[in-house]
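ARCHIVE RECORD
Type: protein–small molecule complex
Small molecule: Phenylacetyl coenzyme A
Source of inputs: curated submission
Record status: active
Notes field left blank by submitter.
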Amino acid sequence: EDVQLEERFEARIAEGEFIEPRDWMPEHYRKTLVRQISQHAHSEYVGMLPEGNWITRAPTLKRKAILLAKVQDEGGHGLYLYSAAETLGTSRDQMLDALHTGKAKYSSIFNYPTLTWADVGTIGWLVDGAAIMNQVPICRCSYGPYARAMVRICREESFHQRQGFESLLVMMQQGTAAQKEMVQDAVNRWWWPSIMMFGPPDDQSPNSAQSMRWGIKRISNDELRQKFIDAAAEQAKVLGVTLPDPDLKWNEERQHYDFGRIDWDEFWRVVNGNGPCNRERLAARVKAWDEGAWVREAALAHARKQSRDAKA
Ligand code: FAQ
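STRUCTURE (tokenized, with ligand):
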């Protein structure tokens, strides 16, 4: 019977149908989705921290309002994604526990510090830019709830990317020499970590082959990375910044930019918990969770009272 179910499942994937929560699915498909969606949710949550750091220090009311909205959006993305993962039968408490105990992964990028105001614009331009490149194909992911969550997330990310680019453009075109230098310094620090966001090279990516077969991943890590580099190299010219890679060069034959060697040792160091801010980020999430305990207790007490009143 399982063989038949599996064949039917494979056929639906091949037809490009969405798989929905109540449909039969192989256990490994379920596990892969819980892994990826929960890691994605954790990234959105932890991703609030580096930029949140600058809310109190944004240079103008306009920039502060934009940044507040952006950071709130990231929190919202985390919530849609936790909800999508819950449809696969794992609870939010389990997922958050895995994050808080350091067992769960989240994107390497959020383990780098935000040292100046230009980091905020650079995160919008490069980090949100990379996130969109990676997430647009997930709108066509075979699992319905994840694909649908991603549609709205991508729309919001595109606003995030543009606000970042625009904020850098203002500094580069109207700023003082010191402001321009600050932008260049931020770009120097964020460029390599941004292109690492797409994950290890295809031939060292253990999950890729199966995720591609199941239509969870539609475009490979390396292909997305190349598309991102091609786009960013052109945008850098408009901004007037230099990307910190002497080997970055247009290749007429490939119709792509060539680029230098990525430091994968650094990537794995950060993924394995030893980046510049891993401990700080985790501690901040755990503190927020602990300090929110009274809110969760109050909400539960309120819900219990409501249902008692409804019965009475
Ligand atoms: N960081 O076999 P693969 C955002 C892990 S955007 C940490 O290639 P897969 C928006 C990977 O989990 C960021 N770990 O894995 C925002 C696996 O370990 P596992 C979040 C990484 O899943 C912007 C191992 O390495 N976006 O938050 C990373 O097929 C600004 C082997 O890798 C998403 O999560 C990494 N960079 O491909 C928020 C998108 N890369 O699980 C605030 C959805 C790989 O076997 C401010 N996710 N690893 O123990 C994906 O598309 C995929 O999961 C990939 C990795 C492409 C990230």
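CURATOR ANNOTATION: The chain has a mean pLDDT of 97.
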